Amino acid sequence: MEEKTVELLKTLTETPGVSGFEGPIRKVLKEYLAPLSTELTTDHLGSLVAIKRGTDEHPRVMVAAHMDEVGFLITRVTDDGFIKFQPLGGWWEQVLLAQRVEILTGSGRVVGVIGAKSPHILTAEERAKPVKLKTMYIDIGSTSKEETEKAGVKQGDPAVPFSSFHICENGKSFMAKALDDRVGCALVVQLFQELQQIQHPSTFYGVMTVQEEVGLRGATTSVDVVRPDLALVVDVSVATDTPGGGDIEVAPRTFLGKGPVIGFYDASMIPHTAFRNLVVKVAEENNIPYQVDVMAGGGTDAGKIHLFRQGVPSVVIGIPVRYIHDHTGVAHVDDYNNALRLLVALARIVDKQVLQELQDNL
After folding, report:
1. Any idea what DSSP says for residue 269?
2. Rounded to whole angstroms, what are the CA distances from 62 to 198, 226, 272, 296?
3. 71-161: which CATH topology?
4. CA–CA separation, 50 and 163 (whole Å)
């Protein structure tokens, strides 16, 4: 892996920024994008909009990735000093137990562990049932409510998984929290770096949206700032190359290392057919491997963006990731690099004529 890519991915994944509390990651992204942008602004919810003007104002191409990660919100401290919480974003309860988290308090970060009853004191009935989130708690080692409050923990504080960036033994795969969607944010940053070196006929808007994980909210507001002609949403997809992952017979399987995915369907959007076909054509003409993603449930920011005003032709380009919405996801650098190649190839050719052809071929 290239050193600059490692540095970028490590910084972005390890920086906290749960839905509604994106301040830390927005600050870091601003620092990366400011020197690469013609203009840098935000909408009123905090989505970041970086503009790189090309040789023409139109088409306006919105390249969106969401900066928020799944996490937790502290709801109360018990009399014994344990911390109750609710999820921010979609979590499967069974991946939470015994995992460490960081609570972002007003006075600093506090590390805790998500606990539940030990197996030694579970009844036979309890052993046979999944543990419910409502019975879980965060333990920071306190012995009283006063100790927890002295540590700075308060109702309304956000918490994120405590997990560091790690390059796997094959030198290609990497592990981290928040790959959904910090890999997308990293791709937008590196796309803007590439745009400094090439002539591009359209104006690019790199948009880092907020609150995607809790309802695509930042996409809803930021698209009104951009008013795009076209949109490329850069997100992750569920890699189904794990044991049991390919049991869904209808959907095509997606694998680490076999290329980025092009979304053909999800629950929030059917992509603009002509635009989808153009993305596929550009990938094939440039010998960029790709995979097809068909996702029966869930969606991306494209679900809101493509419905703006009279409609915005939109396509999702994704990175296959194992274990998204978990404390540690796994992705592959070849997929990342090929996604970047695809974005750059599209930037070279999307102009007014291409936009007109797309409009003529719904």
Report:
1. B
2. 18, 7, 15, 25
3. Elongation Factor Tu (Ef-tu); domain 3 (2.40.30)
4. 29
Alpha carbon distance 348, 359 (integer Å): 19
pLDDT band at 250 (very low <50, low <70, confident <90, very high): low
Q: 4 burial class (0-12, 13-18, 19+ CB within 10 angstroms)?
A: exposed
Residue 280, CA distances (Å) to 217, 338, 360 in order: 29, 13, 18
CA end-to-end span of the chain:
40
CA 242 – CA 248 distance, rounded (Å):
12
What percent of the chain has pLDDT above 90? 85
Every domain range in the chain assigned CATH 3.40.630.10: 3-69+177-360
* Look-up of token digits 């090309």: 54
The one catalytic residue among 212, 213, 284, 285:
212
Task: Say if pTM beats, i.e. exceeds, 0.85.
Answer: yes
E-strand spans in 14-169? 39-42, 48-52, 60-66, 71-77, 83-88, 100-105, 108-115, 137-139, 158-161, 166-167
Q: Which tokens in the block code for residue 177? A: 């929290």
Query: Per-residue pLDDT tens for 255-287?
Result: 999 999 999 999 899 999 999 999 999 999 999
Q: How many residues does the chain have?
A: 362
Beta strand pairing status for 230-238 and 291-294? Answer: unpaired
- Record the tokens describing residue 110, joined without a space: 């506090």
Residue 51 CA to its chain's centroid (Å): 20
Sign of the alpha-carbon torsion through 108, 110, 111, 113: negative
Q: What is the CATH number of domain 3-69+177-360?
A: 3.40.630.10
Q: Provide φ and ψ at 323, rounded to 5°.
A: 65, 45
- Does residue 212 have an active-site annotation? yes
Separation of CA 311 from chain center: 23
- Name which residue leads in pLDDT, 254 or 249: 254
Strand ranges of the sheet holding 203-209, from the earlier edge strand across to the other edge: 39-42, 48-52, 203-209, 60-66, 230-238, 314-321, 261-265, 291-294
